[in-house]
Amino acid sequence: MFMRFIYKFSSPPYFYAISGKMLPWLTALFLILLGYGLYGGLVTAPADYQQGNSFRIIYVHVPAAWMSMFIYVVMAISGGIGLVWRIKLAEIVSISSASVGASFTFLALVTGSLWGKPMWGAWWVWDARLTSELILLFLYLGVIGLYNGIEDKRAASRAVAILALVGVVNIPIIHYSVEWWNTLHQGATVTKLDKPSIHIDMLIPLLVMAGAFKVYYFITLLLRCRNELLEREQNAKWIDELLEKAK
Amino acid sequence: MSEFFAMGGYAFYVWTSYGLTFLLLLIGVIKPLLANKQILRDLLLKRKREGNA
């Protein structure tokens, strides 16, 4: 049942039609989560006892950082699937994730910098967490550059998948950097086996914002996949029908 | 209200973070939406040209 759905979903005309229908619902879900998360994070969550209101940067910083790693893993896995089984949609998902992943990585770095300045007194330090996240940004940029540098898009997808898979080694390094090295960046407060060391009123908006960012990723991924599909399949018959309807 | 915007003296850091985040999120959907229109327009044009030839 599930496999049949996946099989059907990965057929280009079906994917294009169904994703078009999903987008308004996803957008509504995103806006609800975003509104709730922003209100919770900026208004109802109490100020931090040490960091005052500056801690509110957490509600964009941490979800962006989580997404930067999550998207990288999606990009590498779907790239790997495309590499082994030559599934067109997997290749497209992989490359369509790169630029949104790079955006989230950039945001994690910049909002971290904007948080670091008032709290640590420095915009940037060469600490293990910050450095490994910066390497993640370079990996994303490498993937985008490599893809754009190869004319044949299927060959480009294969090259990019290998680079993405090799770069996965950086993901556990980012996550455990705060344990393995003596970092200025604080340790994990949510994603650890122990109970989260953050108050529930601060935690809930954080999780809601993380949910909002995940839905956002899904929205922009669908949008990009649709475009990539149109460009790769431009002579296909289903596109003729699509254009006929759009007239 | 002005207390809310002051963010306990951290207004610059907090609002720049949020502003930049929303700017990038917005660009991230507007770009593919505009690209979609452009691609469909180009494909339609291409079909028309091929139809005439």
Proportion of residues in helical segments of chain B: over 70%
| pLDDT < 50 runs, ≥5 residues of chain A | none
Largest sheet of chain B: none
Whole-number average pLDDT of chain A?
92
Mean pLDDT reading of chain B = 90
Percent strand of chain B: under 5%
State the secondary-structure class of chain A. mainly alpha
Q: What composes the largest sheet of chain A?
A: none
Structural class of chain B: mainly alpha
Pair of chains with the largest interface and how many residues each contributes: A-B, 37 and 26 residues
Summary?
By secondary structure, chain A is mainly alpha-helical.
Q: How would you explain this protein's 3D organization?
A:
The complex is a heterodimer of chains A (247) and B (53). Chain A is an all-alpha fold. Chain A has one domain (29-187, 201-246). Chain A is 78% helix and 0% strand. Chain A has nine helices and no strands. In chain A, helix 4 runs antiparallel to helix 8 (200-232). The two termini of chain A are 36 Å apart. The mean pLDDT of chain A is 92. Chain B has two helices and no strands. Chain B has a domain at 19-53. Chain B is rod-shaped, with a radius of gyration of 22 Å. Chain B has helices spanning 2-6, 11-52. Helices cover 89% and strands 0% of the residues of chain B. The relative contact order of chain B is 0.07. With 53 residues, chain B is mainly α. At the A-B interface, helix 3, helix 4, helix 8 and helix 9 of A face helix 2 of B.
Give descriptors for this structure.
heterodimer, A: mainly alpha, 9 helices, 0% strand, B: 53 residues, mainly alpha
Topology:
The complex is a heterodimer of chains A (247) and B (53).
Chain A: H1 2-9, H2 12-44, H3 58-85, H4 88-120, H5 128-149, H6 153-167, H7 170-180, H8 200-232, H9 237-246
Helix pairs in contact in A: 2-8, 3-4, 3-6, 3-8, 4-5, 4-6, 4-8, 5-6, 5-7
Chain B: H1 2-6, H2 11-52
